[in-house]
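Protocol step 4 of 6: record predicted structures for both targets in the notebook before any analysis. Target 1:
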Amino acid sequence: MCQVRMTANPFNMLIGALLLCQVCPVASADLFRYIDEEGVTVLDSQVPPRYVNNGYTVLSDDGRVLEVVPGALSPEEVRERDRKLAEQRRREKEKREREIADENLLRLYSTPEDVIRARDARLASIKGFIETSQANINRLEEQQRDIESGLADVERQGGKVDASQLERIDGIENRIRQIQHEINDKQTELTDLERSFAADLKRLRELESQTASNGVASDHRQNGATVAND
């Protein structure tokens, strides 16, 4: 801040005022740079309201840029901005989910061999259930054939078919349908598990490879630092 020492003498006060005007620069208003509707760059002490949404630049009196005020976005630019933001959020969400999935996977399995052992045990259990259920269906179908054969003999001999035997056949057929439904569910589960274990095995091998690569890169950096120190 410029200061001028003055006395009470009126002449001295006048001289001091003149010196103040010469020594201390008078602050001038900022300039605004904008583009008009004809595409011409304009410097002015203010920005007309109709050009504000186009953006403008605030300049100091010596031409330095003090602030750049961007123009308002067009509807197309707003949509593009929102699309990019949505895509960025989607990628970030997928990355977080992938990191959480990797952490869970590494808590379950230490090596790819652990995945293979767990897969084989789980699939063997389901396949065993399917085989047992199919054997039960075969047994029930044989019982049904025996009953139907006996009823056919009764009819050929002109006898009356026992209603309880017909109900028994209905019960066997219902049980066969139920077991077949269970087999279908297990076969779907088997396919899903095979796909899931394959994905886990693939990812665990990728993580194992990344860990090995990072270890090699770290060793190279350490070796390089040792050579440099030598």
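Target 2:
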Amino acid sequence: MLTVDKMSKLQCIDAHVLVDALAYVIGSEEKEFCTPCIVTLALILKTTVLILGSKEKVTANILFF
């Protein structure tokens, strides 16, 4: 179980870095990695919609600017 002490020691990746990396891979010549990246982006979108309640709220979030 995660305690407050353990959670404070966790290192998290910035969401912009993750999305930029996925966009870079999708734009690269290695097309075999496109499908997993698209699935990952869809999972991120579905998760944020579940948390925030609607796609409109997700797109209004500062993450997408």
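Step 5 preliminary note on target 2. The two ends are 35 Å apart (CA to CA). The mean pLDDT is 82.
Proceed to step 6 after PI sign-off.
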